[in-house]
Amino acid sequence: MPANGNHPLKLQFGLINHEGRYLTAETFGFKVNASAPSLKKRQIWTLEQDLQDTQVVYLRSHLGRYLASDKDGRVTCEADGHNLDCRFQIVAQSDGRWALQSEQHLRFFGGSRDYLSCFAQVITDAELWAVHLALHPQANLLSMARKRYARLSVEDGEIPVDVNIPWGVSALLTLVYLDGKYCLKTCDGRFLGNDGKLLTQSGRTTAYTLEFKCGKLAFKDCEGKYLSPMGPTGTLRAGRCSKPGKDELFDLEESHPQVVLIAANGRYVSIRQGVSLAANQEDETDMETFQMEFDKETRKCMFRTRQGKYWALVAHGGIQSTATEASASTMFSLEWISRKVALKANNGKYICTKKNGQLLAVSDSAGEDDLLSLKLINRPMLILRGEHGFICHHRNANTLDANRSIYDIFTLQFSNGAYHIKGVDGRFWYVNSAGLVCSDGEVPENFSLELQEHGRLAIRGKNGKYLHGDPGGTLKGDGLCLSSSALWEY
């Protein structure tokens, strides 16, 4: 496992043809077409590269079957393994689109609607596919050559690749999809230009074509050169290379939530005094910031310090940041009560705060004074994706859609244990009397965020009910229970 506990994100994407329609794997009959107007589950493809020949790729559908082409150009998606007809090569074009060539038959894949084939001998517009990443667009960027992470340097106005562990909001990058290409956006809303400078507006010099090599990503600029870390601090900018080598390759990694915890005494939980946890500090520094990592099976949570140590239950109910590996003693259950959280350790006892601020897991129940406020610090820009798609402003109303293939970026503001969510126009979310979430509020309304499991949170309105996507795709604030439609990737 990487030093920061993160895993590289699977390279999943949609492929858009020359008519703006997505390649779709149908659930019945393993048929493929290019008819869908947006990116949903059936339009998501996973790229797998051949272990022996890195030029060869396989395209796996949401059903776990592989795209294949026979000698007559007939295209199917029912192969359950890597056979010869499933082997394709990507021929990347200067505008960012791909041509997919059958390695076995040397023909190109293309077409429209139900008329798809892999029989073209030359590349025309009909054989070109735009690549739309299907992963959550906020991530950490790891340089394969330097084994360091990218971060925003506000004072220098650039992105150095120089940290061992991606920490705090500065390490969060957002991939913005524009006209078939991608921009890299920092947490302060600026875009990376190919000269390494950060710009307030996106444009030609901030747009990059994504290329895949050996399962890693490369970013090609408008001049055909690739982003790489340059100089002693690893400033990210386009170099001289027109072919990607190790210096030009990156992994996108999931960005874990990082939080500060505030006890009932108004003080921050800290390790400033040593390895024992105590709520005794009045300001937020790295010593008061913890990364939350959820165990996928138990849904329990671990808290990691910047030094890479986990909180652990020790003798007599003590909590210390001493563990170097995950174990039962590093796992804590989260119980959300109102806007706060109670933490239960592996001994079945709740964590309570002593008069001197020390945290001990010795209580049989969680009293008011034992609850902690949890402030999420590395999502000032919030992008939410549910089971049907991203949350986005409705085109013609003040409501929000929860089933879109494109996303809007919202601003998250912490306020006294609650959060305010602000749209691109500076107006606030609120829940109206009909239970609809609206986005044109003049004054902020309180919402509570509950980190529930790996990569997902729930949001409650001030009415105590959960925000969820209804079957018609509208975001509502009237959920009575925590269902799958009320869990959001963030």
Brief summary:
This protein is mostly beta strands and 490 residues long.
- Major β-sheet, in short? 6 strands, antiparallel
Tell me the strand percentage band: 35-45%
Alpha carbon gyration radius:
24 Å
What count of structural domains?
Answer: 4
Alpha-beta content class: mainly beta
Low-confidence stretches: none
Describe the structure.
It comes from Takifugu rubripes (Japanese pufferfish). It is found in: Cell projection, Stereocilium; Cytoplasm, Cytoskeleton. By secondary structure, the chain is mostly beta strands. It folds into 4 domains: 12-133, Trefoil (Acidic Fibroblast Growth Factor, subunit A) (Trefoil); 138-254, Trefoil (Acidic Fibroblast Growth Factor, subunit A) (Trefoil), CATH 2.80.10; 258-376, Trefoil (Acidic Fibroblast Growth Factor, subunit A), CATH 2.80.10.50; 381-489, Trefoil (Acidic Fibroblast Growth Factor, subunit A), CATH 2.80.10. It is built from no helices and 49 strands. Strands 9-8-5-4-1-12 form a 6-stranded antiparallel beta sheet, with no helix packed on it. Strands 17-16-13-24 form a 4-stranded antiparallel beta sheet, with no helix packed on it.
